[in-house]
């Protein structure tokens, strides 16, 4: 995948290990288009629990374009393959690659920081903590709460709310 596709892959706000474990068949749906929901099997997730990941419209368009240019790829093949082995890229390599892409874009952060930003932004626009918990794949709402940072504006609004 190109650098652009790596950036879109991180917009799913899946864990790096979950992204690295994706197969073509996980994202390819009917007529070769990208699916709206990725169904992760237990072995693809942290905590050995299957889960669903909802794919946004922008990412679906990019994935559909990728899939249309990659019709020869089998469903059992890796979505993001190592250029050296052709097999699934390992988590550490993918994380390093994402970090270098962010750095090239002038963003000094980690691949995991995107998950924190995702949770914080969803919280800021009023998405409930239980919904964010499910989207993030957390088993505990307490973990999700740790990801959601509050801005001074949110606190000010809460103090003035009636």
Automatic annotation (TrEMBL):
Question: Signal peptide position in this chain?
Answer: none
Q: Tell me the ranges covered by the Tyr recombinase domain, including all copies.
A: 1-160
Report whether rRNA-binding shows up as a keyword of the record: no
Keywords of this entry: DNA integration, DNA recombination
What is this protein's name? Tyr recombinase domain-containing protein
Q: Name one GO molecular function term.
A: DNA binding
Cited SUPFAM superfamilies: DNA breaking-rejoining enzymes (SSF56349)
Q: Name one GO biological process term.
A: DNA recombination
User: What is the superkingdom listed in this entry's lineage?
Assistant: Bacteria
Q: Which Pfam families match?
A: Phage_integrase
Q: Establish whether keyword Repeat is in the entry.
A: no
């Amino acid at each position: 995948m190109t650098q652009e596709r790596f950036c879109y892959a991180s917009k799913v706000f899946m864990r790096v290990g979950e992204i690295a474990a994706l197969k073509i068949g996980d994202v390819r749906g009917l007529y070769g288009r990208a699916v709206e929901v990725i169904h992760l099997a237990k072995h693809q997730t942290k905590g050995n629990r299957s889960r669903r990941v909802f794919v946004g419209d922008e990412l679906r368009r990019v994935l559909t374009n990728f899939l249309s240019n990659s019709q020869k790829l089998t469903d059992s093949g890796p979505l993001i393959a190592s250029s050296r082995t052709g097999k699934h890229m390992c988590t550490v390599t993918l994380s390093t690659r994402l970090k270098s892409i962010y750095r090239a874009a002038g963003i000094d952060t980690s691949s995991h920081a995107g998950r924190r930003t995702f949770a914080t932004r969803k919280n800021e626009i009023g998405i409930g903590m239980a919904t964010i918990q499910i989207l993030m794949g957390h088993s505990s709402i307490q973990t999700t709460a740790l990801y959601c940072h509050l801005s001074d504006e949110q606190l000010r609004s809460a103090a003035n709310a009636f």
